[in-house]
From TrEMBL:
Source species, domain of life: Eukaryota
Name of the protein this chain belongs to: FAD/NAD(P)-binding domain-containing protein
GO cellular component, one term: mitochondrion
GO biological process per UniProt: sulfide oxidation, using sulfide:quinone oxidoreductase
Every FAD/NAD(P)-binding domain range: 44-158
Pfam families assigned: Pyr_redox_2
Length: 451
């Protein structure tokens, strides 16, 4: 199908630099809403990404009542949508990966225009997105939410080790590999198990140790592990970070658990290669390396922005979409927005963060279309339901600056303490509410259901 190139007219003010404008008082002239072309190539809003952020935002925009058929377009090359927070549960033998996926097109409201294509380039000065097939989409507003990519090749030898069904090397960070994790845990009867976490950007910074705590509990129940170091299996946690977690309150509790449970801590150890049963780690500075033998290795690969984002005019120096931390609006292009993992928002990258980011972005985008000041502010809220064993979860909730922002504090609950009730939230409620409400735009996280 050949479509003609049409560029949507947007006011010059909608494209000017906004870097020096205070977030609380930004106000821009916007073009009058223009009709969607009969060819279906121009849209009021183009959303790049059909993951958690893209689905939530597209449906919340629809629910505003200000958009009609095909006003909003969603662009994503995937055919399946995965509830990725559930892959930890798969790694612990609590879920199957198949039950956590849905066909992407079945999750999109029929009023949304779906382009099942990859993105090639952004042309923000022309208000256009070029798809992988060469076709162009015009927009009045662009929302960039494609997530980030996992770079298995960043660790030498890892792709081959993951692909080898006989190796005890696995990772919960991919659909193809997450179910291998529990098989390796079941198979190990003795030896050294090492669980890694890289430096830099990753999805859900608590996940690398969630799978470790579940494995430890499994081996403990099987009589293969004890904290005194005299059991068939010993465990090490090799993290590129200087501590167990980025938020001091929760890091202190997790460090306490690590010591109580006899887990060896290898801090500021960044995995760089896997060869046979030897893992090589880089120490701070990158020049000095240490080798450790293992019998089981759980790996978290390095992650980063997609190339089409990183190389675009929308990216900052780290390759993420350069947005204001409060308003989620681009710091240069006033009609460009971003949320989720692809954004530069300085908070942990979790599905829970989307529940707070999406309403802020939607509110501010709608304010912008009416020429009003942006009056919604994101405080950096995110959450990590951190499994510490089968049956208990430490529910970490925090905002910018690593400051706790706990939902249940009003009940006098210290969320740094693992609770069984939080475990059922993680295992049962969150997967259910995700597909039944969140992706439809009706779940607000700590604020509950959205009317």
């Amino acid at each position: 199908m050949i479509w003609n190139t049409v560029t949507l007219a947007v006011s010059t003010a909608g494209r000017r630099s906004i870097a020096a404008t205070p977030a609380a008082s930004r106000k821009f002239a916007t073009a009058s809403p223009s009709p969607v072309s009969s060819a279906g190539r121009d849209h009021k809003v183009v959303i790049v990404g059909g993951g958690s952020a893209g689905l939530v935002i597209s449906h919340q925009l629809l629910r505003s009542g200000k958009f009609v058929q095909d006003d909003i377009a969603v662009v994503d090359p995937a055919t399946l949508h995965h509830y990725q927070p559930g892959w930890t549960l798969v790694g612990g033998g609590l879920k199957t990966k198949e039950e956590l996926q849905r066909p992407l097109n079945t999750l999109l409201d029929s009023k949304l225009k779906f382009y099942n294509e990859a993105v090639n380039t952004f042309s923000p000065d022309n208000n256009q997105v070029t798809l992988g097939n060469g076709e162009k989409l015009g927009y009045q507003h662009l929302i960039v939410a494609p997530g980030i990519t996992i770079d298995y090749g960043s660790i030498d030898g890892l792709p081959e080790a993951l692909a080898d069904p006989n190796s005890l090397v696995s990772s919960i960070y991919g659909y193809e590999t997450c179910d291998k994790v529990f098989r390796t845990v079941e198979k190990l009867k003795e030896g050294t198990a090492i669980f890694t976490q890289p430096t830099g950007l990753i999805k859900c910074a608590g996940a690398p140790q969630k799978v470790m705590w579940l494995a430890l509990d499994y081996w403990k129940k099987a009589g293969l592990y004890s904290a005194n170091g005299k059991s068939p299996i010993n465990i090490g946690f090799a993290t590129g970070l200087p501590g167990m977690f980025g938020v001091p309150k929760y890091s202190a509790k997790l460090e306490e658990l690590r010591k109580e449970r006899g887990v060896e801590g290898y801090f500021q150890h960044d995995l760089v290669s896997v060869s046979g049963n030897t893992a090589t780690f880089a120490l701070p500075g990158g020049k000095e390396k240490v080798k450790k033998e293992f019998d089981l290795l759980h790996v978290v690969p390095k992650m980063g922005p997609h190339a089409f984002v990183k190389t675009s005019a929308l990216a900052n120096e780290t390759g993420l979409v350069d947005v204001d931390a409060a308003t989620l609006r681009h710091n240069k292009y006033a009609n460009v927005w971003s949320a989720g993992d692809a954004s530069s928002l300085p908070t942990a990258k979790t599905a829970a963060a989307i529940t707070s980011q999406a309403p802020i972005l939607v509110r501010n985008l709608l304010q912008s279309t009416e020429g009003k000041s942006l009056d919604a502010t994101y405080d950096g809220y995110t959450s990590c339901p951190l499994l510490t064993e089968y049956g208990k979860v430490l529910l970490a909730e925090f905002k910018y600056g690593g400051e706790p922002k706990e939902t249940f504090s009003w009940l006098g609950i210290d969320q740094a303490t693992p609770y069984r009730a939080f475990y059922h939230l993680k295992k049962d409620f969150f997967p259910w509410v995700y597909y039944n409400s969140m992706v439809k735009g009706t779940w607000g996280g700590p604020k509950g259901w959205i009317q």
